[in-house]
Amino acid sequence: MTWAQTIVDALKEHEISLIAYVPDSSIHQVTKIVDKDEYFHLVSATREEEALGIAAGAYATGRNAAVFMQSSGFGNSINAVAGLAIPSRIPIPIFINLRGEHGEFNIAQVTMGRSTRPILDVLGIPHYTLDSEERLEEKVNGALKLCYASREPLALCMTPLLHGGKNV
Amino acid sequence: MIESKEVFEAFQEHRGDAIVSVQGTSGRHWADVTTNQNRDISMGGAMGQSTAAIFGLALGLPNEKVVHFDTEGALLMNLGVLASIAGKKPTNFVHFLLDNECYATTGGQPVPNSEEIDYSVIAAGSGYAATYNFDDLEEFSTSLDEIMNQDGPVFVAIKVPAEVENLPIGMRERRTSRSRGQTISDLRAELDIS
């Protein structure tokens, strides 16, 4: 099974049926599966903080929602996490494609990629790094379970060692 | 222009069972007008987030009418959300915009190009199913039945007077209000969502 399919299966396991995202070539490996599966409602956002807002609203209706974005987009959405998701106690799994790691070619991605996990730490958001397929199912399922138990956002940072990254 | 309170009083007559969200200084009048607080939801506070949050709410409740009273200052912070909303075509979503041309809560500083932006044109260009623009209370009141009974997403832009607050934040009178978390729990209880 591919890493992307493992993540999609875990989403279903936790009844996460709305996925809001801003596209990225690695995330596309997940969203292309989601898009073909009628279980999911895939919502394209123009900006990452908007994806978090959509997920928060969906959760208010009893529908679990996750968001997918790049680390650069996480930079765009910090106040959506700090000002909306955390104070409203809304559990949102945030899947972040961590740019600026092994094989990065784009200097514009390096600083935010490097800063993402420290910023998550300062915000008090639990985060786990997914950098191989080893025990992936256990890691993702465990993180999602924690996210809903704690009623707080939680981040899963996916690195090129997991998904192969982007070469050009 | 139409007074915000008059907008809400006219809307209340046509609310039915709609779920209602308000935003900004103008939106505070809704608390004096609403008769079904359990179907009011607050996603405000994080300025620029509430439009997307109520859009998400509309997607999650396709069988309920969902109404959002937005402000131009908040909408401008994430104008791209109009494209996202139009792209998903939520037929149950009615998006009002109370445009007071300024950031009233911080002292009335004008939003960029405040007097010349036609937000209904931006919504129409983004692909909303129907858009309106009102400057007159009577015309607005007589159109509400149509606004509330057609397939969305519908966008309704209304110019309202600015209610500028100049008192320092710590000296302002605070209304008692439910927390955002509480409005979410109350709505979920009202809709029988576990």
UniProtKB/TrEMBL annotation, chain A:
This is Thiamine pyrophosphate enzyme N-terminal TPP-binding domain-containing protein. The keyword Lyase applies. The keyword Iron does not apply. InterPro entries: THDP-binding, Thiamin_PyroP_enz_TPP-bd_dom, TPP_dependent_decarboxylase. Keywords: Decarboxylase, Lyase. Residues 1-84 form the Thiamine pyrophosphate enzyme N-terminal TPP-binding domain. GO terms for molecular function: carboxy-lyase activity; thiamine pyrophosphate binding. The lineage of its organism: unclassified sequences, metagenomes, ecological metagenomes.
Automatic annotation (TrEMBL), chain B:
It comes from marine metagenome. GO terms for molecular function: carboxy-lyase activity; thiamine pyrophosphate binding. This is Thiamine pyrophosphate enzyme TPP-binding domain-containing protein. Keywords: Decarboxylase, Lyase. InterPro entries: THDP-binding (IPR029061), TPP_dependent_decarboxylase (IPR051818), TPP_enzyme_TPP-bd (IPR011766). Residues 42-157 form the Thiamine pyrophosphate enzyme TPP-binding domain. The keyword Transcription does not apply. The keyword Lyase applies.
